[in-house]
Amino acid sequence: MPGGVLFEVGLLQAIAIFSAFVAGGALTVLVLKRFRPDFLETEAERKLGRLKVMFEDAIAAIDDGFVLYDEEDRMYICNEPFRRQFGKARTILDKGLTYEEQVERLAASGIVPGIEGKEAEFVQSLMQKRHSEFGLTKVFQTHEGRWIRQRDKKTSAGNVVGLRTDVTELKERELELEEAQKQAEAAAKAKSAFLANMSHEIRTPMNGIMGMAELLEETDLDEEQRMCARTVVESSNALLSLVNDILDFSKAEAGKMTVTSAPFDVVDCIHGAATLLAPNAAEKKIEICLDIPENQHAWFLGDQGRLRQILINLLGNAVKFTETGFILIQLREKEADGGLEFRVRDTGIGIPEEKLGTIFDVFEQVNSGSTRRYDGAGLGLAISHKLITLMEGDIHVTSTEGEGSEFVFALPLPRCDAKREHREPLSDDFPEGLRVLVVDDLEVNRVILQKSLGSWGAEVTLASSGKEALSILREGRSFDLAILDFQMPEMDGSTLLTLMREIPHASQFPVVLLSSVDVGLDTQKVIGLGFAANLMKPMRAHQMKQTLLRILLEHNADKTGPQADVGKSEFDLGALRILVAEDNRTNQLVIRKMLEKHGATVEICENGKKAVESYFQRQPDIVLMDVSMPEMNGHEATRIIREFEASTGKPAVPILALTANATVQDREQCLQCGMNDFLSKPVRKGVVLQKIEENLKGRLTLVVGDVEDEEQLCSRAAKGA
């Protein structure tokens, strides 16, 4: 109970006792009047008079409003603060009137607004509240706008003692604080909306920069020009990474960042993060060390993607701020309260003691002055802190300037059992003489795979790029199995597989996709691309072995593919009419060049209204629809097209969303309005071609050219991927 209320209750009790004492004095006088009349005029009367004066003085001295009603609910006495609270209605407070009579006078006075013609209902309502809420502390507003806190208490004699405290200033402050909170919340939402909008606005011109740079790389350039174009692409990628961080931060600020819970291998997650940062560390001759107990239980329930994001942020900072020495990642289970504890320690520059308290603040950097040595926006640690908090964990840092730092975070992740497939156990032995082609741009991954496969008896051939892999295959070398990395520079795994299948002796053996956790390909999509399976990085050795063995057992070795001449091949869009709805002129130019280079007939419309008109007139084979456009946006245009198709029975034309908004909610909105797929800006040519092929269900054809242009093919296909 609040202190103010306790005081009021105590005061009421004291007044009740005092009132009883006064009543006792009156009783004494009555007794004396019967047995000693002469005494009444003397001592007893004087005593009663003194008690009455004391009682009235005590009431008058109370700063709060005070009122006393007798057992018949008639007002016996009230003080001046009580009368002041009634303002103009104080004339109703005549002594001897019942509470109900006072209310009736108040209703009839015309002072209370809004009750004209409803005076009886007003009186009835107040009387019901008096009985139903009696004894409760409540706050009400008077007809003059004052806020009053009311508390009534009944005495043993049946009298009612009431206190009325003017809390107008307190209430106004409370309302001000509520309004300030609303304004703060509105400001936070506005800030988040601003950041999200800025992300959109930045992505739009970036689409033009990155698209044109990629197209420029495909032209005949000298070494200096090619270096300049590559620098533009790399710088754009760095900027895109920053924009993604800003988007994550805006989602966190808006309370829209979410985490999931699913079984995952925490050891693999740590290995994956370390593997991703290993090349950056190697460039600085820094060794990343893992300290994970040999018997560590691996499977836990949690959000693997978010944990990976946290680890990458911490490891990325460790690599950035460490010039010599090592980086150590430790994993331990917490025996006391369960969960996991992660430690990331480095031998870097350290953090000054005065900065430790703000290191997790937004946009905070150890050296934020104009002379700072290290780039970055200072969002990584802030986002990691929010993610850990969202996962009900905690993080802290210890550091010594010049010696290094250690970040420790704990997550309450419960143990779980690994998902097991109910199949017959497989042999642990690989087929003798198994020949495996491994294609991965990261040397550390190639080394790991070579060691694992070699220890199982396989003959391993390594390629660092799609171009090198195609060269090996075109030399006539054959393989029983291939493992392709999905995300590689110049040519991704999907494009490489397409080109491999054109080579007769490489058209049938099983190919496994090697991808990171954030590629976003489900099993069905992987199979649809032509892969036998998808191995997630990093793959535990025994899991990879069992997967590869099963693929080999299920593979039909007698299956042969069609014979074709080896030569130049690329997607032929010459038979396609493609409608592009895009209001940005730079993006129009980029997309037109991407598509026309492959022979497509492209029509550009600068808004949704014109796109709908063009669709009615020319019936395109596929539509690339920008979401944010003037006059009519992409969602509305798509709905009109889908309604027309439904009413006429025409087949649905594939519509692919083009948007600079990259959230899950944006994707869902696009799909809900009838779009088939989602392309996030900045768009890459290889992704655009892949999406077109997927949504046209094989209508794209491959053009076979001359063998002598093989090198040119490889270069062009790789850059177009």
Features:
721 residues, alpha/beta, Beta-Lactamase, Helix Hairpins, Heat Shock Protein 90, 5 domains, 5-stranded antiparallel beta sheet, 5-stranded mixed beta sheet, 17% strand, disordered C terminus
Task: Describe the protein's architecture and organization.
The chain is α/β, with parallel strands linked by helices. Helices cover 46% and strands 17% of the residues. It has 21 helices and 24 strands. Helix 13 links the parallel strand 15 (481-485) and strand 16. Helix 1 (3-35) runs antiparallel to helix 2 (37-61) and helix 6 (168-217) packs parallel to helix 16 (585-596). The chain is elongated.
Uncertain parts: 21-32, 368-373, 420-427, 556-570, 701-721
Q: Using only CA atoms, what is the Rg?
A: 40 Å
Q: What fraction, in percent, of the residue positions are helical? A: 40-55%
The strand order across the widest sheet is 2-1-5-4-3
Compact summary:
The protein has 21 helices and 24 strands.
Layout of strands and helices, then pairs:
Layout: H1 3-35, H2 37-61, E1 65-69, E2 75-78, H3 80-85, H4 99-108, H5 119-132, E3 138-141, E4 147-154, E5 160-166, H6 168-217, H7 223-253, E6 262-265, H8 266-283, E7 287-291, E8 299-302, H9 304-320, E9 326-333, E10 340-346, H10 380-390, E11 394-400, E12 404-411, E13 435-439, H11 443-455, E14 459-463, H12 466-474, E15 481-485, H13 493-500, E16 511-515, H14 523-528, E17 533-536, H15 541-554, E18 571-572, E19 577-581, H16 585-596, E20 601-605, H17 608-618, E21 622-626, H18 634-648, E22 655-659, H19 664-672, E23 677-680, H20 685-695, E24 701-702, H21 710-720
